[in-house]
């Protein structure tokens, strides 16, 4: 073998070794990430939510799938959101229903409420009053006022719907443009929950073009008005610099406010950081 051929062969060996080392270190890094998420699910959910805000759905899904393998309710619920809205994957209501059902079984009240709403609306999933009542009751036991109100409405089929209930059922039927118009009317009148619903829509591009700064603005309005979901969402934005400039002190303050209201993810995040609200 001449010198040129020997050099070429040696270079190929070096490239092969380099590729194998890169793959090995990449696998180790991935295993390390998985270990970190499993060891600290609250911070894993933080990371995934930040990636979700930036429309990095594959990255968010990777974290949530890891946590879902050990039955994390928040991760299962969020995988349902991705499947229902077709974010980073084909829209699939059967897949969404499966994730929501698993999350509800893990006692995730957001999944319980979502299932109750979907079964009540009867458009995206077949109408099932019995299942709607079951899941709304479970969510209501967590103190979820939206579930309590919808459950009351389910027991009085002839009672008129409130504007918020109309918006929720339109959302649960996939009629997002009409739902957002009602949420906007309520938000303009000072309804913090409707404001939070609008913020989520701008965050994920549900019925409107995705607009993270607008989502952050609306989350802040709702957070200032005392909405725990908005306070948690704003805390994540401030912690990660997604939608708002990074501000750890402000993030901790909003997280504390959400935790004091009993927001499960906020409380879990505080515990993971060694800070427990009294």
From TrEMBL:
InterPro entries: Sel1-like, Sel1_AlgK, TPR-like_helical_dom_sf. SUPFAM superfamilies: HCP-like. Pfam families: Sel1 (PF08238). Transmembrane segments: none annotated. Coiled coil: none annotated. Residues 1-29 form the signal peptide. Keywords: Signal. PANTHER family: ERAD-ASSOCIATED E3 UBIQUITIN-PROTEIN LIGASE COMPONENT HRD3, SEL-1-LIKE PROTEIN. This is Sel1 repeat family protein. It comes from Rhodoferax lacus.
């Amino acid at each position: 073998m001449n010198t040129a051929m020997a050099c070429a062969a040696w270079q190929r060996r070096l490239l092969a070794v380099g590729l194998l080392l890169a793959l090995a270190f990449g696998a180790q890094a991935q295993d390390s990430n998985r270990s970190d998420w499993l060891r600290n699910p609250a911070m894993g959910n933080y990371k995934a939510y930040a990636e979700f805000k930036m429309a990095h759905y594959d990255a968010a899904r990777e974290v949530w799938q890891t946590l879902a393998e050990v039955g994390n309710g928040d991760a299962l619920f969020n995988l349902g959101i991705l499947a229902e809205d077709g974010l980073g994957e084909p829209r699939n209501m059967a897949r969404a229903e499966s994730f929501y059902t698993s999350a509800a079984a893990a006692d995730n009240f957001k999944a319980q409420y979502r299932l109750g709403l979907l079964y009540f609306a009867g458009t995206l999933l077949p109408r099932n009053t019995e299942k709607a009542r079951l899941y709304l009751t479970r969510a209501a036991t967590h103190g979820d006022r939206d579930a309590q109100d919808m459950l009351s409405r389910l027991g009085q089929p002839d009672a008129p719907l409130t504007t918020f209930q109309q918006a929720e059922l339109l959302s649960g039927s996939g009629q997002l443009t009409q739902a957002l118009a009602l949420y906007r009317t309520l938000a303009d009148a000072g309804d913090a929950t409707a404001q939070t619903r609008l913020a989520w829509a701008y965050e994920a591009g549900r019925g409107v073009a995705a607009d993270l700064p607008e989502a952050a603005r609306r989350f802040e309005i709702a957070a200032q008005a005392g909405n725990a979901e908005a306070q948690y969402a704003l805390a994540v934005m401030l912690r990660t610099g997604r939608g708002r400039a990074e501000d750890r002190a402000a993030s901790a303050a909003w997280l504390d406010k959400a935790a004091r209201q009993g927001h499960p993810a906020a409380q879990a995040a505080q515990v993971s950081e060694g800070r427990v609200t009294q």
